[in-house]
Amino acid sequence: MPPAPNMSGSSSAAPAISLRSLGKSYHGRAGKVHALRDVTCDIGHGEFVSVVGPSGCGKSTILKMIAGIIPRTTGRIEIAGQLVTGPSSQVGVVFQSPVLLPWRTVYENVMLPVDVARQPRSTAHDRALDFLKLAGLSDFSQRYPFELSGGMQQRAAICRALINDPAILLMDEPFGALDAMTREHMNLELQRIWTERRKTVLLITHSIPEAVFLSDRVIIMTSRPGTIDEVVDIDLPRPRALDMMSDETFGRYARHIRAKFAGMALYD
Fold this sequence. Notes:
Elements lengths: L16 E12 L2 E13 L4 E5 L6 H8 L7 E6 L2 E2 L7 E4 L11 H5 L1 H5 L8 H10 L15 H13 L5 E5 L7 H18 L2 E5 L3 H7 L2 E5 L6 E6 L14 H13 L8
Parallel strand pairs: 3-8, 3-9, 6-7, 7-8
Antiparallel strand pairs: 1-2, 1-4, 4-5, 9-10
């Protein structure tokens, strides 16, 4: 499949994220396992892209390699034209579990990356308060994680990922553990934060409606070894309201993506 178009806003500018012939293999007791094969695509600056695919197709592996958490086996990953060789300050990551430290307040959890990097708190204090306000958590800044709902904890985790003002936000099934109503609310919150901050977002999700609702494009992965089957452009007006999910155009996108999985091995 040819590379996805460069949507960075300039034909000469390097895309926010560039993957070229990306592959990942693991060696285990049962032998070599090929998790990913020949993944090639570009993600433009300020673009919101989701990745969907069968369990075990390597979605989360792609995210971790872009984040510099695990090494690639083959191919190349670039962030704004620079080769990824490890974690970068340009990238913030949100995982399925918010992983908030129970002995730190919400504000202290948001400031954790600043403390770990041994940066002066004064440079990030106002930014932390700004993000907490943006996420609707200003009144809970001095509360502890056990005093927050699951959705509020995940919003705090998003603030923490944004505290160092990264250009890119990587999200690995961040709302998967939430109930359906809270998940829908979080989709609206994420859309609002993205609209106001215009970060480049790569979202890993198992929810097709979530992917269609949030994204400019949806990348569909094949079963293992995962590779890109298709990239679907989502041409829906923004901002998007939840009642758009009952719209025929929305349903047509969702049905098209769902049909792609009909012939795949969903569990490998």
